[in-house]
Design brief:
With about 450 residues, the chain is α+β, with helices and mostly antiparallel strands. The chain is built from nine helices and 24 strands.
């Protein structure tokens, strides 16, 4: 697709219009206990059209990306924004002309199957761990964006996602473990450390067979990197997305420049060294690193063009849609807490009687700040030593309360990858954090 003919919008009175065209390809397979259980190869092409008229958005999508098909989608989008007058306005941005190469790479199906089988086999490291599963998914999307502002961008967005599941059984007791990772290219599947991760996943499931019950009450808790990343993403990150901040009941709306956490905590949304990558968001705005919390103080929010105008601030490139047939929303990309200055050994020594918890089974964080997460595994700590393993454990608190109780930030950041659902739209996101020492959390088994 070349930059679209402006006449496609010229028949209609509007303040702004844009078109996103996606050409997506997917290869996916599941290997369980040495056998290929599921394999999928698919393609999808379509376009999403937005129109802004009198402060109101109109949207339409189509699988017909010919000029006439797009023109009909523009007409439908225009029709949907005639029902009422809104208040939406957009921050000004400079037009961008960026043509990325649309070259694609793929592996033969036999190669993907061989890799998945090899990784799944690594999880059969014990008579107690006979059930393993690997899901390998490779997608690449050529995304083309054009707007009435004069922007035209083409970029290719590849992503490889690996999920490991291991189940251990002994004397009627069952323990499960899961690990997920993501890459920007298929060559990363050749890395030896992936077999180590598969083995670690199985070993965690086996260790869970010896886990006891978690005590109930208020405890100091060391959140391992995986669980700390969930806290940063779910309890903090979603509260910093500007479409939520614009609401009257927003938890963070009046917190800019306020000290809400330990001075060693800094939280950013970034592309640096991350795998959930794009150069420009779904409004044609270049993604840049955004500091959300700087040394404990709230600095700003994740914006699209509408919220940037509302707050009279810069855009951050965080407008993302899950597909051509969904509207862009303000979304995180790769959110992480940066490394602090406290070693893991120092955390254990400082907290006395406490819990170390890691992994994530489920839970939720509410707009009012209340959250409840279920950790997959952990250890009870006494006198600076791991005493006994514990199984699934629940932690609960509120965002601002938990932030205020952080008393230590670890030195090693580990990135994790997961699908995040917002308003029905699923997107891959990166989330990372060092271990966090929280002086007080409600814990239950």
């Amino acid at each position: 697709m070349e930059p679209f003919d402006p006449s496609i919008f010229s028949r209609f009175d509007m303040e702004y219009g844009d078109i996103r065209i996606l050409h997506s390809r997917i290869q996916q397979l599941t290997v369980q206990n040495g056998e290929v259980q599921h394999m999928l190869i698919g393609h999808e092409t379509g376009a999403g059209v937005r129109i802004l008229k009198e402060g109101t958005w109109g949207f339409s999508s189509t699988t017909d990306i010919s000029f006439s098909g797009l023109a009909n989608a523009v007409q439908r989008a225009h029709r949907t924004c005639l029902s009422y007058q809104g208040q939406a306005c957009l921050a000004d941005v400079r037009p961008v002309k960026q043509m990325g190469k649309a070259s694609r790479h793929s592996w033969a199906d036999d190669n993907l199957i061989e890799v998945a089988r090899k990784l799944e086999s690594a999880m059969h490291c014990s008579p107690h761990c006979k059930d393993g599963k690997v899901l390998l998914r490779y997608t690449d999307t050529i995304k083309q964006f054009s707007s009435t502002d004069g922007t035209y961008i083409q970029q290719i967005l590849p992503l490889v996602v690996l999920d490991f599941w291991a189940t251990a059984r002994r004397n009627g007791k069952v323990s499960e473990s899961h690990f997920s990772c993501a890459f920007m290219n298929l060559k990363s599947l050749e890395e030896d450390e992936l077999e180590e991760k598969a083995l670690e996943t199985a070993q965690e499931a086996i260790q869970g067979l010896d886990a006891g019950n978690t005590p109930n009450g208020q405890f100091p808790v060391i959140l391992g990197s995986s669980l700390a990343s969930i806290f940063i993403h779910e309890a903090v990150g979603h509260r910093m997305e500007a479409d939520e901040v614009m609401k009257h009941h927003s938890l963070m709306k009046d917190k800019v420049d306020s000290l809400v956490a330990h001075p060693s905590l800094t939280v950013v949304d970034t592309m640096d060294g991350a795998q959930s990558w794009y150069g420009y968001d779904d409004e044609g705005v270049q993604k840049k690193e955004t500091v959300l919390i700087d040394r404990g103080r709230v600095q700003g929010f994740l914006n699209d063009r509408q919220s940037a105008h509302y707050f009279d601030t810069d855009t951050t490139g965080n407008s993302r849609a899950s597909n051509y047939n969904t509207i862009p929303l303000t979304r995180m990309t790769n959110i992480m807490a940066l490394m602090g200055d406290m070693s893991f050994e120092e955390m254990i020594e400082e907290c006395g009687q406490a819990l170390f918890l890691d992994g994530f089974v489920g839970g939720a964080a509410m707009p009012d700040g209340a959250f409840r997460f279920v950790a997959r595994r952990g250890y009870f700590i006494e006198r600076g030593e791991f005493v006994s393993p514990v199984g699934k454990s629940t932690i609960s608190s509120s965002t601002l309360e938990a932030l205020s109780h952080i008393s230590g930030v670890g030195k090693k950041v580990t990135m994790h990858y997961s699908e995040c659902i917002k308003k029905g739209q699923g997107l891959m996101v990166g989330l990372g954090s060092p271990a966090l020492l929280v002086s007080q959390l409600r814990v239950g088994g």
